[in-house]
Amino acid sequence: MVKMTLLFIIAEIIKALTTAELSAGTLGMYRKYFDKMQNYFLSIGEEYCSEKVLENYWESLVHREKPYSARYLSSLYRTINLVKEYYATGSIVWTLRKKGSSYNPCCYYQKIITDSINRLHLVGSTLQCYDTIVRKFCCKLESLNISNFHKVTNSIVFTIITEIGSENSRSMGNVIIILKKFFSYLEKVGLCKISISSSFFLPYKGVNHIPSFSREEIKAVLRVCDRTTSIGKRNYSILLLAVTCGLRRCDIMELKLCDINWHRYELRIVQRKTKKFILLPLLGEVGNSIADYILSARPENSSFENIFLTVIAPVRPMGPTAYNDMLSSLCSAASVQKIGRRNFHSLRRSTGTWMANSGVPVTTISQVLGHSQFHSADRYISADPQMVSCSLDFTGILPTSEVYR
Questions:
Q1: Residues whose CB is less than 8 angstroms from the CB of residue 135 and which lie 6 or more positions away in sequence, other chains included
Q2: 332 found inside a domain
Q3: What is the pTM of this model?
Q4: Same structural domain for residues 245 and 192?
């Protein structure tokens, strides 16, 4: 077999992926995965590709002291397979992975699933989601040696729902709706007499609790922003906006120059998620930091109206991943403890939590955060009685107490 360097193979694969018209974000992720592989080859002093080195690389990923998530490992494994394919054949055939394609029930179940789809007239993404979840459910029935729906009991359904819940905790709402629809179909065609009500699934409906930051942690993160650089000025302004205004990441991403009224020192936006208009005052340090970034650090002559742009060419609005990466990097530099599920949205949660702990009414919190319903603020209400008497004072976070008025 002809010897090929890993660099050559990666370059050819990237060309093929580019031809496949993948999004810039997807291409960027693959480049990161290939960089990790290349770093491994460099660490062992290997230039040429071989099956053995690729296997050793995979072993190093699987037996890492601090384990990677299954999803991340799956992505890394796909890059290894791409390299193996090119190494063996001199080319790659790019195919999109169909969601849920690993669940293939027997003919009996598949025929019933197909009939239910036809009767329910499902199309598009609804069809894909329904098909994936129902096939997964039927495969789990097979694993329990349940050969037909007449043998299904409440206890069996209960067991499978529990298992699916542990695997799909963030999408259990869809799982519940789809399985209720499927069992309703089974009852109508006389295949199963189980009638499942919403209360049956109530114990498995999870609530996502996103941890917040403490004031001291935010102060530490702000301190490590190097405000002598363009990136530092930009990151500092973004963080201040997030913690003083409680803006969502998507709204900061889409924030435009015309959204700030510099005469009245107000921020006026229509939130992407709720389509709700909100008007918020800008504190002094926040307004000053944004003005400093725009005047001295923001790339000039940009065709984009978005305030926050990338520093490295090609200049463009920052993407969602860039915000989480920025926060993660700053937290690491500030020695702020890494906590599971804490991400950029945690800054917004921190704002709501501090307001709730300071005794601010739920209605006011909802208005500030732009919630479509007042009950959305319930998750920010803390049970810490010692904090309720404290006044809301964002100047405890900011380097100065000047109000931008």
A1: 100, 103, 104, 105, 109, 110, 113
A2: yes
A3: 0.47
A4: no
